[in-house]
Amino acid sequence: MENQVYHIPVLLETAVEQLDIRPEGTYVDLTFGGGGHSRRILQELGDEGRLYSFDQDRDTLANCPDDARFHYVASNFRFLRGALRWRGVTEVDGILADLGVSSHHFDELGRGFSFRGEAPLDMRMNQRGRLTAADVVNDYSAEELTRIFRDWGELDTPWKIASCLERARAAGRITTTAGLVEAVRPCTPKKEEAKFLTKLFQALRIEVNGEMEALKMALEQSLKVLKPGGRLVVIAYHSLEDRLVKNFLRSGNFRGEVVKDFYGRVETPFEVVTRKAIVPSAEELERNPRSRSAKMRVAVKR
After folding, report:
1. Sign of the four-CA dihedral 268, 274, 275, 280
2. Does the domain spanning 120-209 belong to CATH 1.10.760.10?
3. Are 231 and 300 in contact (CB under 8 A)?
4. Apex CA 265: angle with CA 262 and CA 267, to 5°?
5. What angle do CA 114, 210, 156 make, to 5 degrees?
6. Which of 1, 59, 112, 212 could form a disulfide with 122 if both were Cys (CB 3.0 to 4.6 A apart)?
């Protein structure tokens, strides 16, 4: 599998620059994917440096570099701390997370992540996982579907979409992406069809893969494994992820509630490096249009 075809890494040079890599340091890439960020990190490491790259999708095994300093971790990043400890690593110098879906997942129509074309309604990042998008669409109650479309898709009329699916699945199980698109057609706005379907598919994908809970777990564990002075670099692609990351880096909690000590000084585990999120340049947007929604935030552990 050609690495460049699998996925074009977003904000590549900026991410490596923000990690402030020490040649002898130990680093983590939480989202290995096509290996673009990992390969670039390895270029900055010396012989004593180490890189641990996580991915739950077995398709990514084909992208692993042949490098003694590189360690592939076949796991969801929600198990960050445990997976590192099992490998004898208790603290690291930097962590990078490039969240979202790789180009490979969208382009490989058979995985069911795209609403373009027809494929099994799957959406599992981990192909060994039990829950599929078809299970959610066909087996969840109207109330559960409403919650998903409201919370994970931020759609305007989630209850209408849930009712639409209830009517459609009464006639038979919805098993393909094209079948889902057809099922929600009565409540799809004609002028914003692509935007609507993007949000709908995002909501189902997040539910199937437990993405928000996994992100929370990884962020909390990053505090435990980062050394003082260690850097956390996160690239998010939608407001749900970015809000969580922003709040956590600012306050150490997901509500964004800043705690102050007796003297009024803010108590936070991080020093935020990026007061404003870093976004792709015009040149990168032209080269890789899929990077348009990317927002990078960086913090140093105190």
Report:
1. negative
2. no
3. yes
4. 95
5. 60
6. 112
Burial class from Cβ neighbours inside 10 Å (0-12, 13-18, 19+) for residue 44 reads middle
- Kindly list the domain boundaries of the chain, sorted by start residue: 3-103+211-301, 120-209
pTM: 0.92
Q: Which two tokens stand for residue 242?
A: 């970015």
Q: Which single residue is written with the structure tokens 């360690």?
A: 71
Q: Which CATH architecture has domain 3-103+211-301?
A: 3-Layer(aba) Sandwich (3.40)
Rounded CA-CA distance 41/55 in Å is: 16
Tokens, residue 19: 């990690």
